[in-house]
Amino acid sequence: MDNSELLKSQLKKFAVRSAIFIPINIFLFAVVPLDGRLMSERFFVATKMYLVSWIIFSFILGLLIAIIPYKKFSYKQRYLRSSIGTVYVGNFIMLIMTSIATILIILNFSIL
Fold first, then answer.
1. Which end of the chain has fewer CB atoms within 10 angstroms, the N or the C?
2. How far apart are CA 15 and CA 80, in angstroms?
3. Left (φ > 0), alpha (ψ -120 to 50) or beta: where does 110 sit?
4. Annotated domain spans of the chain
């Protein structure tokens, strides 16, 4: 398997997993009543946060991560890989945190 095929398969895995995590994160964030806002407001905030802010932040962070030397890929390939990888890792971490918050709220534990 050459480098371009390896990169394509990794990017496809990251993209598919992120596409699964994003709607779950938005749903959990919108359903869990962490503040006094309406669910529609929380849904709007979550959508804006996960689809716009986090992706923009990930691609900016990808610029810095791609500086790390890696002989197999060019800078452009490293940038794309690190940016999409950052989206994936961030969404996975947020999924874990939101799931824990949901479980705690269901069990009537106070988060604050």
1. C
2. 11
3. beta
4. 8-30+38-105
Calpha distance 109→43 (Å, rounded): 23
Inter-helix orientation angle 39-48/3-31, to 10°: 160
Percent of the chain having pLDDT more than 90?
1
> pLDDT under 50 in the chain at which residues?
none
Closest by CA position to 6, among listed 68, 80, 58, 92: 80
Q: Are 80 and 63 in contact (CB under 8 A)?
A: no
SS3 104: helix
Q: Distance between CA 80 and CA 14 in Å, rounded? A: 11
- What's phi and psi for 34, nearest 5 deg? -80, -20
| 3 state DSSP class of 24 | helix
- Show the tokens assigned to 96: 């874990």
Helix 3-31 vs helix 75-106: crossing angle, to nearest 10: 30
The conformation of residue 65, written as its DSSP 8-state character, comes to H
Task: Cite the beta strand spans of the chain per DSSP E.
Answer: none
